[in-house]
Amino acid sequence: MILVTGAAGKTGLAVLAALKARGAKTRAVVRNDNQILPARQAGATEVVVGNLLDADVWRLAATAVSHIYHIGPNLHPNEVRIGQLMVAAARAIGNCRVVYHSVIHPQIREMPHHWRKLKMEKILFDSGLSFTVLQPTAYMQNLLTYLPTIQKDGILPVPYPAATSLSLVDLYDVAAVAAKVLTEHGQHRYATYELVGTEPLSQTAVADTFSQILHRPIEVRPVSPEAWQAQALARGMGKQTAATAVAMFAYYAASGMAGNPQVLRFLLGREPTSLADFITRTVS
Fold first, then answer.
1. Helix-, strand-, coil-residue percentages of the chain, each rounded to 5
2. Which residues, other chains included, contact 21 with Cβ-Cβ below 8 Å and sequence gap of 6+?
3. Residue 269: phi, psi to the nearest 5?
């Protein structure tokens, strides 16, 4: 039995589906009853509802599991505490392997959520557990937020300059690797894998790729961090979460986020999904 936390998010659902395709039994942890059905539809054999800051929820969820795929709540200020509870639960089981869903370049202090994942990796390294760390870069799926504006207005609105270069990865490629390392017993112990699908792409290059596939001009239109934050708060995002995202955008604007696809190519045994292939799949 493989425990998947954060199972109702886009990453968790993709990992559940990839594990189902490999015939694995999974137990999903979700926050509320409304998320039970999506988790089951994605492939969860069992579902536990609860708060990951509750040690009793961890004891229940981790009972008789052989592996934990831990996805910390996105941009959550208590991610380290949640990770500590996860490690305690895994150690209590005995002979449990943890695959931790981290992030590319977690050592970047200017991005608080990256820095928290670095702390979490250190806790895992010191735990005595058998572990694997996956470090994906930004998902291509994040671009879907902008798809209505791209298709309606021909505008790619991003909260950093058009020249900002980011390496991207298809979430489904990440999920395929997650399922691989969870089910290929003993082959990935103590490994840390950066999961990158593309060389760094400027936002202009991203817009040009949309243009080629949609057969219409697409223009990058930067949105100020202040305007983005105001919109996020109006949609109900918490102040601390929004501030963490804005810090990420500021780092992207200053330094970009570059990675190399070679590790992902090796793990998949094929070429990673290109941005053009992702867009074609999405809009077709």
1. 50, 20, 35
2. 43, 179
3. 70, 20
Q: 205: which residues sit within 8 A by CB, 6+ positions away?
A: none
Tens digit of pLDDT at every position of the chain (284 positions): 999 999 999 999 999 999 999 999 999 999 999 999 999 999 999 999 999 999 999 999 999 999 999 999 888 889 999 999 999 999 998 889 999 999 999 999 999 999 999 999 999 999 999 999 999 999 999 999 999 999 999 999 999 999 999 999 999 999 999 999 999 988 999 999 999 999 999 999 999 999 999 999 999 999 999 999 999 999 999 998 899 999 999 999 999 999 999 999 999 999 999 999 999 999 97
Amino acid at 26: T
Q: Does the pTM exceed 0.70? A: yes
- Beta carbons of 133 and 100 less than 8 angstroms apart: yes
Ordered domains of the chain (ranges, CATH): 2-138+169-196+260-268 (3.40.50.720)
Residues 73 and 81: beta-carbon distance below 8 Å: no
**Contact in structure between 47 and 36 (CB atoms under 8 Å):** yes
Instruction: Give the residue carrying structure tokens 């500590």.
Output: 84
203: buried, middle or exposed (CB in 10 Å: 19+, 13-18, 0-12)? buried
Nearest Cα neighbor of 249 from 75, 121, 100 is 75
Distance CA 113, CA 106 (A): 8
Residue type, 172: Y
Are 280 and 213 in contact by the 8 Å Cβ rule? The answer is: yes
